[in-house]
Design goal:
heterodimer; A: mainly beta; four-stranded antiparallel sheet; 0% helix; B: mainly beta
């Protein structure tokens, strides 16, 4: 089945450590996105990539880094510079088919910093 | 400044009644709007969308209305069911771009 996978589902990290969240899609979508959701908050864009080997900062990119070496993969690294990393992280990809655009989301990764 | 706003953080409705979720936007360049539904600890799932050339789109129990002059859209769920209890996000996209702007979400609770 086609879709977006994120791993792991739950992740714990000690303060000061970097951690990488995985996002893989087999939908053949060009554009991929990382969002962060905090309790009671909406979705805030961290980084996005419209094509392989290219990515742009979103609204809250500080303390995060990404790579896009393959179309299928868009890993997000949460660095020790991110001051409040505990959150629910969502990866998405975009299809532009017919006359509409639609983002598909992965199941999310909940990161907790201890 | 938030370009897409959902001013009601929560809404409680009795089962069988209508749920109306509202969304306002400020950017007149937005020409396509989507609603997503999200359960806790899961990714959002696409629900329904509407193009700016329309003022209504219906899919089963879900109808989205768009008022371009007021820069307002709403999602109607009729009849509401307990399984509809979730957070609903409104999103907007503009002019063949591929950036979605999300509202802050509205938590819907449908009581049996």
């Amino acid at each position: 089945d086609g879709g977006i996978t994120q791993s792991p589902k739950y992740l714990f990290r000690k303060e000061g450590q970097n951690v990488t969240l995985s996002c893989e899609q087999n939908l053949n979508h060009d554009a991929m996105y990382w969002y962060r959701q905090d309790p009671g908050q909406g979705l805030r864009l961290i980084y996005y990539s419209q094509i392989v080997n290219d990515f742009q900062k979103g609204d809250i990119a500080e303390g995060y880094s990404v790579s896009r070496e393959k179309k299928e993969s868009f890993p997000l690294t949460v660095t020790s510079a991110q001051k409040n990393p505990t959150a629910f992280y969502l990866c998405a990809s975009l299809t532009t088919s017919g006359n509409h655009n639609e983002q598909f989301f992965g199941p999310g990764t909940r990161l907790t910093v201890l | 400044d938030q370009q897409v706003k959902q001013n009601s953080p929560s809404l409680s409705v009795q089962e069988g009644r209508i749920s109306i979720l509202n969304c306002d936007y400020t950017n007149s360049m937005f020409d396509y709007f989507l609603w997503y539904k999200k359960y806790p600890a899961e990714g959002p799932t696409f629900l329904i969308s509407i193009s700016s050339i329309k003022d209504k789109n219906e899919d089963g129990r879900f109808t989205v209305f768009l008022n371009k002059s007021a820069k307002h859209l709403s999602l109607h769920i009729v009849p509401s069911q307990p399984g509809d209890s979730a957070v609903y996000f409104c999103a907007a996209i503009h002019n063949a771009g591929n950036m979605l702007t999300f509202g802050g979400g509205t938590r819907l609770m449908v009581k049996p």
